[in-house]
Each structure stands twice: as structure tokens, then as C-alpha cells.
Specification:
Number of strands: 0
Number of helices: 3
Largest sheet: none
Oligomer: single chain
Strand content: under 5%
Structural class: mainly alpha
Order of helices and strands: HHH
């Protein structure tokens, strides 16, 4: 499980970094969408770790809050760019 959360968690940063040099708006949105999916997967692994008592409540709350905030930020950016490219 530790390996899985490490993979999904680091993939978020890698995809955001790739989005910085996206070749097009569609590529930018795609990279951020992948980052958002990886953040969502990370949430699942956090829940599994918490339910299995591998992380305490305080750590879980803090990390989960950060993960959810990151998903909100990525979603906001994606929606704004999509709306801007439509109009």
C-alpha cells in the first residue's frame, strides 16, 4: 500500500510539472486531469491506510484535507481553462 500511495502521490506532481510545458490547451487540460485522477486515487489509498490503522486520525485528517484541497484547485483550473477556450 505504501508503494501505491507513493506512486499516485508523486504522479500528481509529475503531471502538474508536465502541464507547465504543455503543447496546447488540450494537452494542458489533459495533464491536469491526470493529476486530478491521481489525487483521487491517493484519497482512496489514504482511506485504506486509515481504515487499516496504518495512520492515525490526526495525520489522516491533515493529509486528506490537503488532498481534497488539491483536487478542488485542479478542478477549478481545469474548468476555467475549458470555459475560456470555449468562449
Amino acid at each position: 500500500m505504501r508503494s501505491q500511495i507513493n506512486k499516485s502521490g508523486t504522479s500528481i506532481a509529475a503531471n502538474i510539472a508536465e502541464a507547465v510545458y504543455a503543447q496546447s490547451t488540450a494537452d494542458f487540460i489533459s495533464k491536469l486531469s491526470i493529476a486530478r485522477k491521481e489525487a483521487n486515487e491517493t484519497k482512496v489509498w489514504l482511506e485504506i491506510l486509515h481504515e487499516g490503522k496504518y495512520i492515525d486520525q490526526e495525520s489522516f485528517n491533515s493529509i486528506m484535507s490537503d488532498c481534497e484541497e488539491l483536487i478542488r484547485i485542479l478542478t477549478s483550473i481545469i474548468v476555467k481553462i475549458e470555459n475560456r477556450s470555449k468562449g
